[in-house]
Amino acid sequence: MSNTEIWLVIALLAVATFIARSSFWLIGHHISLPKRVQEALRYAPSCALAAIIFPDLLLSNGAISISFDNPKLIAGIAATAFFLVKRNMLFTIYFGMAVYTYVRLGL
């Protein structure tokens, strides 16, 4: 692939990204979504977050690892329990990282 082709692909991807991201911004007020779709879209951020977090917690060396040998899973469970009790996101992050470090280093 020549340099010209690479730059052409980059430019086309930039244009495609701009069109896709700005379309809702530019014509969004002309589109009315049904109430059922609006309610379903409320769960999109939490679904996206779960899709990012769960593979990281459950996969170890490319395989699913649901055991006490997986420090990420233990830290995730401990952080979830901490959050359910304290309801403080910042301290939950600190607590989860402390548990992860403790379990990983085997202190």
TrEMBL record:
Transmembrane segments annotated in the record for this chain: 6-27, 48-68, 74-103
Identification of the protein by name: AzlD domain-containing protein
Q: Which organism is it from?
A: Undibacterium parvum
Write down a Pfam family by its short name: AzlD
The question of whether Transmembrane helix is a record keyword is answered with yes
What domain of life does the native source organism fall in?
Bacteria
InterPro entries, sorted: Brnchd-chn_aa_trnsp_AzlD (IPR008407)
Keyword field: Membrane, Transmembrane, Transmembrane helix
